[in-house]
Amino acid sequence: MNLYAESSAILAWLFSEDTEPHISEALESAEAVASSDLTLVECDRAIWRVVALGELSEVDAGELHARLTEISSHWTIMRLSPEVIQRARQKFPSDPIRALDALHVASALIAGNAIADLAMLSLDERVRRVAVSLGLPVLPS
Predict the structure, then answer these.
(1) What DSSP string describes 116-136?
(2) Which residues span the domain enclosing 115?
(3) How many helices (H) and strands (E) are present in the chain, helices listed first?
(4) pTM value?
(5) CA pair distance 13, 8, nearest whole angstrom
(6) CATH of the domain at 47
């Protein structure tokens, strides 16, 4: 199976949250992984946020940034293209959905046009709900 990796899943993986083993398993078993510039920005901003709050050292943040850079270097990164933005601006079957989530779903839909058997890797319930309503399988199960 191929994946679209959404920010909530990658953040759980980065910060070794309870769901991390399921995310790691999905990432390791995927034939291909697509994601968005948005995922990288959201993950980097989350790392800097916990540093600013004093919950993470800058050294540890550097290690997380390096880990994100390494794994994402093997991904197909979707740009926030006019096509993605146009689709995100449209209605989704199970609205409401927030703007950044709509950009992720739109990116996954467009990636799915080029990548067969694409599933949404997300922990965000809104993203998961909309993905299912659009016929995308979601992981973790």
Answers:
(1) SSEEEE---HHHHHHHHHTT-
(2) 2-139
(3) 7, 5
(4) 0.94
(5) 9
(6) 3.40.50.1010
